[in-house]
Amino acid sequence: MNWDLSYFYKNEKEFNDDFQRLEEKIPLLANYQGKLSEFKYFKEYFLFEEEITKLLYRLYMYSHLASDLNLKDQQLQQRNQMVILKMNQIGSLTAYVSPEIISIGEEKVLEFVNKDEFLKPYLFNFQKLFKQQEHVLSNLEEQVLANFEPTRSIPVQLYNSLALTDRTDEKVVLSTEEELTVNTQNWRSLLPKYQKEEDRELIFKAAFKRYQDNKDAFSATYNLVLQQLASNYKSRHYNSALASKLDGNNIPLDVFLTLKDTVYESTKPVKRYLALRKKHLNLSEYHTYDRFLPLIPALNKEYSFEEGKELFFQALEGYDSEFVANQKQALKKGHVDVEMKDGKRTGAYSSSVYGHHPFILLNHDKSLDSVFTLVHEAGHSAHSIFSNDNQPLPTSRYTIFVAEIASTFNERLLADYLLNKSSSKAEKITIIEREIDGILSTFYRQTLFAHYEYEANQLVEKGIPLNSTNLSKIMIDLYQHYYDIDITKEPGKQYVWAYIPHLFHTPFYVYQYASSYAASLKIYQDVKARKSEAMTKYLELLKSGGNDYPVEQAKKAGADLTLKSTYQAVVNRLEELINELESLLS
């Protein structure tokens, strides 16, 4: 199944016509400068901004989706960059808006909002702005920062060139003299197929060769990312990069620190599980790449996309009808690109803008994991459908902080269904193993990476120059603490920081995977315990878009992320699963 991008534009001419319209409209945004204190122009500006936003959304969705289908096609990449440059131009031309609104004063702005139906949906956004006014600069200062905005994408472009565009496949010869082609798309699926440690090490070495060979280029690129963060937080009068990233969504610093510290103090069950694996798999030493080895022989069960989708639909039976309908709508034909293709972006995502159906990118390999990926992305798309159907444009975009609640809720739903319907001990072991791995990869591993970002930014804030050695030292120490594994013994593993695109693309993003996982576990357990009331609260969360601060949204749905107990519950769940697994294996 492929994307049908004619949903946006049927041909190049339609795209070009809209792009030209955008080019003509953008300069007009500057006409409102100095006039926003008058109600007439205040309202006109936001009407015009919505018009441009909707046009930009359509152009961006088309260009970025098309470019992700073939990263090697320079024409598609150039077209996408053209749209991104227009985004930057809009940002530069509208840099005056926030300072000017603040200069008008909160009382007068709220007066404008209260007397006009069109402006009322903007109320929360204006309240957020006035809350952050100490970090909004003067018109001139905002303009200077906006002029540098196009350069902010340079580290991301460099990273993409190093990690994606310029990548080459590696050839390895195994102990059996079998020759394998290893790349970023297939190395994980290759590892479980080979029982000899030397073969797994060869595959892993090939997968991480790019990061080891280019460690200094990656470290220089990451240094650029962190220096940009530092210049931004200092310019906007924050006391740290982390504070600047949390403030926009009013995330208390304690939420991040409580998560980080709770997980750091709770690695005992992780080490217990790895010891269980080492013993059961009869390994002399346990390496990080051994986590891909199944505890029991693989069931060799394959799931086509359609079979995986049908399995998900079966798991949805008995749930709220509106919830089910939007999950199914998320996987509508033409809105999911399923198969691996040469040049296609790796991984998976759901992409959505207001006024348009979400699109899902997959690289489906027929494994059970790929079914869970399908379900995960359907959760994001369904969340977007709920939000867009129930919120006006100004509050339609939910934050990253709550985004992963919807996706991991779906994964938990499917896992429970599979466990309950299975009568086979082997199937139960496989599913429980996957659930444990889910906690390790989503809750523990992502917190480890968040901890890594925290420590790396601490170096920058102390004025310590970054290089591949000290960046790797942080990772070596964290892996030793979390897993009792010395990653210097594994080829290239100490450069795993270069393997994680989020560190380069979206700093201080990954902790939200872990916090969302904790929230979704709490919400899911509530739904199981008292289905109707808890499901109503959950649907309210999905429908609320970005109409409140995310910590408050999660709390209304039943998950208080300011409490250590919310994170400790995930640790407790891990221990329960390990106990169940030990019982089955014995």
List the helices and strands and how they pair.
Layout: H1 12-25, H2 39-69, H3 74-93, H4 97-104, H5 106-114, H6 123-131, H7 139-147, H8 154-165, E1 170-173, E2 179-182, H9 187-190, H10 197-213, H11 215-235, H12 241-247, H13 253-264, H14 268-280, H15 305-315, H16 321-330, E3 336-337, E4 349-351, E5 359-361, H17 368-390, H18 400-421, H19 425-461, H20 468-483, H21 496-499, H22 501-505, H23 511-529, H24 531-543, H25 550-556, H26 564-585
Parallel strand pairs: 3-5
Antiparallel strand pairs: 1-2, 4-5
Helix pairs in contact: 1-2, 2-3, 3-7, 5-6, 8-11, 11-19, 13-19, 13-26, 14-26, 15-17, 15-18, 16-17, 17-18, 18-19, 18-23, 19-20, 19-23, 19-26, 23-24, 23-26
Task: Please describe what this structure looks like.
- The strands form two sheets. The protein has a three-stranded mixed β-sheet with strand order 3-5-4, with helices on one face.
- Helix content is 64%, strand content 3%.
- With 586 residues, the chain is mainly alpha-helical.
- The radius of gyration is 24 Å and the shape is globular.
- The chain has a domain at 5-147: Butyryl-CoA Dehydrogenase, subunit A, domain 3 (Up-down Bundle).
